[in-house]
Amino acid sequence: MRRKRRILVGALAVLSGAIAGYTALQILATRPTELAVAAPPAGTVPVVVAARDLALGALVAEDDVKIVSWPEDALPAGASAQIAQVVGRGLITPAFANEPLLDTKLADRGSGGLSIIIPEGMRALSVKVDEVVGVAGFVLPGTVVDVVSTLTPPGGDAASRVILQGVRTLAAGQTITRDEEGEPMTVTVITLLVTPEEAESLSLAANQGRIQLALRNTLDTVEVETRGVHVASLMQTPSSSGSSPRPRTASASSPTSRSRDSVIEVLRGGVRTLITY
Questions:
Q1: DSSP letter at 107?
Q2: What is the DSSP string of 131-177?
Q3: What is the C-alpha to C-alpha distance for residues 102 and 208, in angstroms, rounded to an integer?
Q4: b/e for 215-224, b at 16 or more Cβ within 10 A?
Q5: 172 has which bridge partners?
Q6: Which is higher by pLDDT, 218 or 100?
Q7: Which of 39, 45, 180, 213 has the greatest number of C-beta atoms within 10 Å?
Q8: Across the chain, where does the E strand assignment appear?
Q9: Of 89, 85, 79, 82, whose CA–CA distance to 59 is shortest?
Q10: What is residue 180's three-state secondary structure?
Q11: Distance between CA atoms of 168 and 259, rounded to whole angstroms?
Q12: Cβ neighbours around 17 below 10 Å, total
């Protein structure tokens, strides 16, 4: 009996070893396949792409980009293979997520961010605005606005006028400043692309009175001549301003015209004719 028990135990041990060996062989047989799936496909090269949408004029940081495998036969010209090649450079054009950061989209290192997108002869001027002045958050980079200035001259009444038209917005952000009581507050800063002469007018209007931005269609390039408006002119009625009401013309269907005119209907050869006398 004891001998049979030893034989049974030995058989079970051999069977367990065989199962373990078979399992190990199966694991070793499938491991190369798994490694082949995880490995990058052949014929690809590393390319630096944007990790998220990047705005015009932004300086590229390490967390703004990532490296992906790109088909070698479809590699765009000017693509970078290392993150260090793009970090610290400014974007000349906006970049979208997963888009390669080509050399044609980046400024030279050390040339700055916003300054690289200012055309020759133009200037970038930032002004502080509130939510009302900034059209309740709709003034974004790339939008076009008109600048309305409201001033009150000494001894006169307040006047408002459009001083700049078709001005493009370069940037819109927020900064922390302090109010009259010294308490911190958040204000919106809008950066506009202007000529040197327009920069003078905008700076004077922002410091001497109040400016407001009027959002306009980016395709609308027509400039409108305005005379401005004073407080006194807002209180004038049409009669007091010297203008008379527009005369009302009698229509053909008015009762008076119907009473004076007689109409005869004539049918001739199937043609209907109306004769008025």
A1: P
A2: TTTTGGGT--TT-EEEEEEEE--TTS--EEEEEEEEEEEEEEEEEEE
A3: 45
A4: bbeeeeeeee
A5: 190
A6: 100
A7: 213
A8: 44-50, 65-71, 123-129, 144-151, 159-178, 184-194, 210-216, 229-230, 263-268, 271-276
A9: 89
A10: coil
A11: 62
A12: 10
Tokens of 18: 């065989």
Average pLDDT over residues 118-145: 75
DSSP letters, 20-52, are HHHHHHHHHHHHHHHHHHHSPPTTEEEEEEESS
Residue 158 has phi, psi (to 5 degrees) of: -65, 145
Q: Which residue shows structure tokens 């502080």?
A: 128
Instruction: Identify the residue whose tokens are 């306009």.
Output: 216
3-state secondary structure of 258: helix
Q: Are 191 and 175 in contact (CB under 8 A)?
A: no
Q: Is the pLDDT of residue 248 over 50?
A: no
The sign of the dihedral angle between the CA atoms of 24, 29, 32, 33 is negative
106/232 Cα distance (integer angstroms): 54
- The residues near 58 (Cβ < 8 Å, ≥ 6 apart) are 64, 90, 91, 113
In this prediction the pTM is: 0.49
Instruction: Determine the pLDDT at residue 164.
Output: 92
Alpha-carbon distance of 115 to 92, in angstroms, equals: 10
Please state, in angstroms and rounded to a whole number, the distance separating the CA atoms of residues 224 and 217. Answer: 14
